[in-house]
Amino acid sequence: MTKRILSCMQPTSHLHLGNYLGALKNWVHLQDEGAECFYGVVDLHAITQPYEAGDLLDATREIAAAYIAGGVDPEKSALFVQSAIPGHSQLMWLLATMTQMGKLERMTQFKDKAGKHKERAGLGLFSYPVLMAADILLYKTTHVPVGEDQKQHLELAREIAGTFNHRYDVEHFVVPEPYITGAGTRVMSLRDGSQKMSKSADSDMSRINLTDDADMIAKKIRKAKTDPEPLPGDLKGLEARPEALNLVTIYAALAETSGEKVLEEFGGKSFSEFKPALSDLAVAKLEPITRRMNELMSDKAEIDNILVKGAERAQAVAEPVVEDTMKIMGFWRG
Ligand code: TYM
Questions:
Q1: pLDDT in tens, 81-98
Q2: Phi, then psi, of 236 in degrees rounded to 5
Q3: CA distance 140 to 314
Q4: Which residue's CA is the closest to the ligand 1 atom numbered 24?
Q5: Beta bridge partners of residue 78, listed in sequence order
């Protein structure tokens, strides 16, 4: 059976190395293996936290440009904007009626984002994972390539699919499998090896953005937090050294190899030798992506063309699924 892939990113800010290594790279692999792929820019998710209305459109186009620059081929994969497909919101409501609040309260991302004053958090932020479940189930997705931080949301999507099928005694929704693979599924901050690399961290030095130029990438790696020890010969030697482990992991993910292999090469060497090598590798891999992204961003009409075509393909799959779901639930359909 052909794999049906769906994955998405939020147009909240520039994409960073974690988004690329944890998700986008795998999207491209799956596409090139011949899977049927749907890649969305989830603008409805992006408005669950404070945002500037005037920035949303550019951010949406920039994420689409990053997908293409990172290797998503719009001829092969459907590349679309979430809000252009009404089925996402429609299905979300239907699924919300069978999702327990207790489960949503346990979502760690909600807890992180809501902070201390949970009662002031918006309903949109609280129900965010239900919209994400709708994104996935709407396309009868078999595999969802994401970073490790999305595991809990995916588990919930699986549960919701199971609840629906059980309640209505149907085999309607596909229970999706997470596809979390490769060395870069959890890229950490360059300033603190216990925090994940994130778009929202205060310090820009904590992340490498796909919009950073070669000098900036080199500077961020040079300034990345490390420890005074040389690199060990195996991964066990990195157990209590999160920052060192992170840099080795980033190297492995960029070079498409394993941490062990990186340490075979760099074991015994100091960071003053390892960091320039990492920096060269990162620039070699990321610079072409940044260049292509900038080219694409200078032709917004072309990006919009691609998004219109992608939306047509997404809509053709999504609409009948909403219809079928409503029929199963007993709605009047005319
Ligand atoms: P978002 O926009 O935060 O992140 C996009 C993707 O990047 C991955 N990621 C990371 N991977 C490794 N290391 C990191 N430091 C790192 N930071 C982010 C994320 O796991 C994700 O794969 N809720 C999702 C968006 C979403 C979605 C969906 C994803 C909405 N609907 C349906 C898949 C399917 C999110 O906030 O991703």
A1: 999 999 999 999 999 999
A2: -55, -35
A3: 12
A4: 9
A5: 38
The length of the chain in residues reads 334
For 173, the token pair is 């929704």
Measured in angstroms, how far is the CA atom of residue 147 from the centroid of ligand 1? 6
pLDDT tens across 232-248, in order? 999 999 999 999 999 99
**Number of CB atoms found within 10 A of residue 118's CB:** 12
| 204-220: b (≥16 Cβ within 10 Å) or e | ebbbbbbbbeeebbbeb
Query: Which distant-in-sequence residues (6+ apart) come within 8 Å of 269 by Cβ?
Result: 230, 231
Find how far residue 22's CA is from the centre of its chain.
7
Pocket of ligand 1 (CB under 6 A): 6-10, 18-19, 22-23, 42, 45, 132, 135-136, 144, 146-147, 149-150, 153, 184-187, 196-197
d(CA 92, CA 72): 27
